[in-house]
Amino acid sequence: MNKRRFLRTLGGASLSVMFAPKVLDRYARMPYAELAQDEAFWGTIRGKYRLVPDYINLENGYYSMQSQPVLEAFVRHIRGTNYQASRYMRTALVPDKLRVRTRLATLAGCSPEELIITRNTTESLDTVIAGYDWKPGDEAVMAAQDYGAMLDMFKLQARRYGMQNRVVSLPVDPRSDAEIVQLYASAITPRTRLLMVCHVVNITGHVLPIRAICDMAHARGVDVMVDGAHAFAQLDYRIPDLGCDYYGASLHKWLGTPLGAGILYVRREKVAKLWPIFGDEGFEDTDIRKLNHTGTHPPHTDLAIENAIDFHNEIGSARKEARLRHLQQYWTKQVRGTPRIVMNTPSDPKRTCAIANVGIDGMKPADLGRALFEQHRIWTVAIDRPAAKVHGVRVTPHVYTTLAELDTFVRALRTLAA
Ligand SMILES: Cc1ncc(COP(=O)(O)O)c(C=O)c1O
Q1: Which residues have CB under 8 Å from 79's CB, separation 6+?
Q2: Which pTM was predicted?
Q3: Closest CA to ligand 1's atom 10
């Protein structure tokens, strides 16, 4: 990114107030990897959040709190739409939603005609799964490490229509992309219609080689649906570059919107064949909005998406990704290889970003999570998924996490493992 563009993106309402022009200029010259280690820069970003003082929050994977500028805007939107009431809904809702959808499409790198605003990833992906005209004997491919709601949605289709699900199991620390691609390829048969794959596996933090998986699946005539719940606004990418047919994500995770916002991307040529869940004769079969009949819905949530995009753009996707990976690497490097400590996350930095999962041999994940909170005031989440072979606590720093907090976590882990 050139200096002018950087100054523009860092020059938004909040950050330009925080950084003096000279300081901004210095940051503009800094390579991402170097800026990722600049505690003063990230300390200023941290100042934009209201953080609980009596424990360290390393469970930002469930959802990200809104930054203060976004929260304030959200409250203004609640007041504004409540004040105008039905007049807002009847006159401004549609154009406002189109504007927000267009901004989201720009962030995702796709056309607004390929994207709708949903409530969350579950709604987005389940809309696709339910949108297929499944026939007995049809097959879908997925992984044991995928998210439970989508696995359950596929099980529901199996019960209802007699289709079949083939489930692969991802290795914790693959040697190559080819190993993963081959794993998915081995589950495809002539009956396979749809392959579901996580962009980032939520329980391990594993970042999967989506483009290569899509190319392989398409060569076999199989559609690909990507679960991007954790990737959108954590990683720096454009959805069309992944080559997938469908992509769902939650905006309340890494974009930091209010709870209850997501996106569904459907590649243009794939829109027509999907059946909507809710009837809407107002749109052509080729119009993605046919999948977006939600009934009356809180408009202030959708409006605040725009403020969250502004805040995100002020930092920039590439800078955020570099910082998040740096934070994860900072702590995992210190504990990997320590006796009794089990890492459930790939060792190659390219296969990870913010999220990692760690266990202690002989200690139940729930006990580890409880000990971390009760003895060390560190908030994580226990993951105990025998079918996925993942037992540990998920640790998810965010842009406001400090190295000092991670040092505290590393000390706690070592104490508990000793
Ligand atoms: C990989 C993955 N997919 C889907 C979801 C569902 O997200 P939501 O509850 O926002 O629909 C999650 C939530 O944690 C997730 O981690």
Answers
A1: none
A2: 0.96
A3: 120
